[in-house]
Design a protein that fits this description.
By secondary structure, the chain is of the alpha/beta class. The protein is about 60% helix and about 10% strand. Helix 7 crosses helix 13 and helix 13 packs across helix 14.
């Protein structure tokens, strides 16, 4: 997860630290030129509080924090000409512009995902999934709905994919995993508590794991052998919807499906066509 997203979530921050985080988010470029004393004056806090916040974010000190902040700002600036992934329209946008903006956002999310996708991690992920007798998927809310589409496609080529819809069921699913299983864990932030709990159980059971998550360091990435990065331009809370990340997750699942299909192309095609014919209720002449 990027530094800016960590500041937005403000997990386990004190009220003073939240005040500092909010100021940095609203004045990020200015902060690059401020000392701890100057930032403390502007946020009505203290240099010691700023240093503690930097250390809480896993930096040695304020200078290291500013180096990372600068890199995050450059990432945001590099997408200035792109559609705003958080607010692709507002209350004054007419329907023609909404249509064009959403279509452009789809295209940009696909391009961004392809740029972030590590080809070696993808190749190794496909090897893990191919060897696994069962693929278990973990996530909450929207990602699980997208995972269901992947599950449906995989069933049609004879690959067992399991998804427990309830959080507690997912933890039981993780606890009952066998060594011939492989897990895919999906979390945009990489900090979703329920997904992290599942990852902890899977790690104890030595189940190989693949993360689908946003760019940057996060808890989920640390648990998984391979990481497939999503379009990471969305904020955690301040947005209209998860349009870009939804497209990105769909794309990654479809790439995994296609990669596995291609490994056993003739057999997979035969299995799918035979299944389709069996469940097709239309009368044949």
């Amino acid at each position: 997860m990027s530094l800016l997203k960590k500041l937005e979530i403000a997990e386990n921050f004190s009220e003073s630290e939240k005040s500092i985080a909010q100021y940095i988010l609203q004045n990020s470029e200015e902060v690059l030129n401020l000392s701890t004393i100057e930032l403390a004056k502007k946020t009505y806090t203290s240099p010691a509080t700023i240093t503690r916040l930097c250390q809480k974010l896993d930096f040695k000190g304020y200078n290291d924090f500013k180096i990372s902040l600068s890199a995050n700002i450059q990432y945001v600036l590099s997408h200035q000409d792109s559609i705003n992934a958080n607010f692709p329209f507002d209350k004054n946008t007419n329907i023609t512009h909404i249509v064009n903006n959403i279509a452009k956002l789809f295209k940009e999310s696909i391009d961004e995902t392809m740029q972030l996708l590590n080809q070696e991690d993808l190749r190794q992920s496909l090897i893990l999934l191919d060897k696994a007798q069962v693929i278990d998927i973990y996530g909450v809310s929207g990602p699980l709905r997208m995972a269901s589409d992947f599950q449906y496609k995989m069933f049609r080529i004879g690959k067992d994919v399991q998804i427990a819809p309830m959080v507690n069921e997912q933890l039981f699913q993780a606890a009952r995993c066998q060594k011939d299983h492989c897990a895919i864990l999906v979390s945009y932030s990489g900090e979703t508590e329920e997904v992290i709990k599942a990852a902890q159980i899977l790690k104890r059971k030595k189940i190989p794991m693949i993360a689908i998550t946003s760019l940057g360091d996060n808890k989920l990435s640390a648990y998984c052998q391979y990481v497939l990065h999503l379009d990471s331009r969305e904020q955690i809370y301040n947005k209209i919807s998860t349009i870009g990340s939804t497209i990105s997750i769909h794309l990654i699942f479809d790439i995994l499906y296609a990669g596995l299909f291609s490994k056993h192309f003739d057999e997979a095609l035969k299995t799918k066509v035979e299944a389709d014919k069996l469940i097709d209720h239309r009368e044949r002449k």
